[in-house]
Amino acid sequence: MKRLTLLTACILAFGCAEADSDERIWFDMPTWSGAAAIWAGGTDNEWESKSLPIGNGSLGANVMGSISRERLTLNEKSLWTGGPSVTDDPSYYWDCNKPAASVLPDIRQAFLEGDDELAGELTRKNFGAVPEQIEGGRKIDRFGYMTTLGELLIDTGLREGSRPLDFDKAPDKVNYGGVATIKKEFRPDVKSGPGETVEAYERSLSLDSALVRVAFRQDGVSYKREYFVSYPDQVMAIRFTADRKKSLNLCLKYQENPIAAGETVSDGNDCILYFGSLKNNGEKFALRVKALPRGGKLVPENGSITVSGASEVVFLVASATNYKMNFDPDLTDAGTYYKGEDPCVLTSGRIEAASKLGWKRLLRRHLADYQELYKRVDLQLGHSAASSLPTPYRLDKYREGHPDPGLEALYFQYGRYLLIASSRKGDMPANLQGIWCNKIKGPWNTDYHNNINIQMNYWPANLTNLDECMSPLVDYIRSLQKSGGRVARAYYDARGWTAEISSNIYGFASPGDSESMTWNLAPANGPWLATHLWERYAFTRDREYLADVYDMIAGSADFCCDFLWKHPDGYYTAAPSTSPEHGPIDAGATFVHAVVREVLSEAVEAASELGRDEERAEQWKNVLGQLAPYETGRYGQLKEWSKDIDNPEDTHRHVNHLFGLHPGSSISVSGTPELAGASKVVLEHRGDAGTGWSMGWKLNMWARLHDGNHAYTLLHNLLGSGTLDNLWDNHPPFQIDGNFGGTAGIAEMLIQSHGGSIELLPALPDSWASGNVKGLCARGGFVVDIAWKDGRLSEVDVLSAAGGSCVLEYAGERKEVDTVKGRKYNLKY
Ligand code: FUC
What pTM did the predictor assign? Predict the structure, then answer.
């Protein structure tokens, strides 16, 4: 008892609930201090694979952990170019839809006459947006991109230390704590040892505590740095410590983003403030950094913070923009998205409040907030001998074929970590890179791609018990309603709303201005987004939430009804349509029908749950009943297009025509075995390689086919060839969707609930013979713990959050439990 009390006291005093488990990603070599932003004339080769990301949904940072100069790349998720204020006349931004609906009859007639070429030509000419405006010979980029917030550089006065040694100089074997011995072939570089200028270097990200730590010794002094970004207090906190008093001499500077106009000024000796605006659109933003040193002195210098002879230095960082989400933007007001609080005032308040709290309390509040989400799920897949290795070597061993279930569990949890760090209530959702971008303009604008990427980001949200992280996605969909309504009318003369290929934080829902229709003709993307609204309800059974989002689901169903063409053969058909980024302009792409099928049935269910819209739902049912059916082709494959033109050699990364298998639910092993078989043929043709996200998606699909070993092959490939040393997904380049697809896929191997029952261990691979998972969610409002041994289910605990019947299925056996809300049920197998 006494012991327990002591332990509790220790936790309260030192916040040591942060104690580490094996759930960490770590490196034993520092990155090079000489690296710098590409836009500042540097090379930044190590950022993508060696940096460690932290974030609170709006403020993100990557820690480089170099010795003589610490470098942190910074992001504020709402720092975007583009939007209605790119010119003085905001109508330029909103009036980019072409009045294409009037051309639809001609396109459809051309299809009927077999003139696909004409149908294609008319589509290309009419279904893009009007070209971007040229002003004074300069193209005005209305779409924009998320840009960097700049960088923090902290000179430490320490010697750089040795860079990775030459391979030839490396010892034959290095022993890690007696647990694993790494042979030379796995280690092109080695840990610095005694005699080197840097010893015992570690840079780690603890998933348990969302803390990055950098630790090393130099000249007999142990240095430690810790970093976290707090959601409750909206600041990043950094602490430098050393075990010899007065040995910290630090100089912090801010490296500005050159596409902004602004200035970094000192605010007293201990604080710097940057206040500026993006030159492109005038968006205002601020960054403040304050130093709280212990011992030593602050040396006044303009625009930087210098501390000398300190024993500990805490830096607090706050940033804000004047962007504010707007669900009903005024189309005549260029500043309609910039009604947020003054970023100078906001950051000042945050820094002041955080200074009062101090490091320990900030940390405690951060841990309480983060761990409440993260610790809901625990996954144990078995012990790995390699667990004590630095992550890159662990990955190497894995690639060589050494089993490492612990690495797979780590990868699973990393996806959850990344979602918590990049998607919190009150901000826009996780973008193509989550929140982390080291460039002025990142790949694909670091935007929101609606044709797989943003959807994949949210696959693990409800499934892995992170409902709170869904809130930004719902807000994003809401932000597309007004502009999406205009798109629906202009291109399809349809009610409701949709969104095309990609969107930004300014409600952009139109297509791009390209004639390349394979990617730019994407009206099913809005309905695809709408399926997430229903899914969240399916998991939570929160009726109040459903009532709140119902209009968006119903609007999407209306859009689907109007946008389809009643073909003379009697079927509702999507013409013209495409299979994402692949193939011809078609008279009925399977993918589009599959999405429509999903949205219409969800809308029917939503209306019935809420007792609303009986008549409207009749139309949805009617269209659903006459929707162009799935077809199989000459290879027994699920046809991708209306014609049987699939090529079995085609290994294209997109597999959207299997949407009904995953993430949809119209194809399943038990419900539609023939279509499941035809889907399997497609997956076999497409193969097991691909970009990061593509492997992530196929992993989910094989899991839905109940083929655990094949799903495992995809997981192995994703980790093997689609993953960087810091476990970020590699498209290439780094793109975060594959991380989330991977996490969801692992969960789908252990539990599925899309078919009206809870399937337990539906795709357990031989490699995970024994293990357990706690806290996964199933549709119907259930939280499920599963334990298995020697490849067989042994025990299940089901917590019922909403009451009602719960049907469990395992190996052909069905058990039904009539549950009471709030109660937990234990079943032995
Ligand atoms: C889609 C994909 C690409 C890439 C891009 C961001 O267009 O087809 O592979 O992921 O999004």
Answer: 0.95
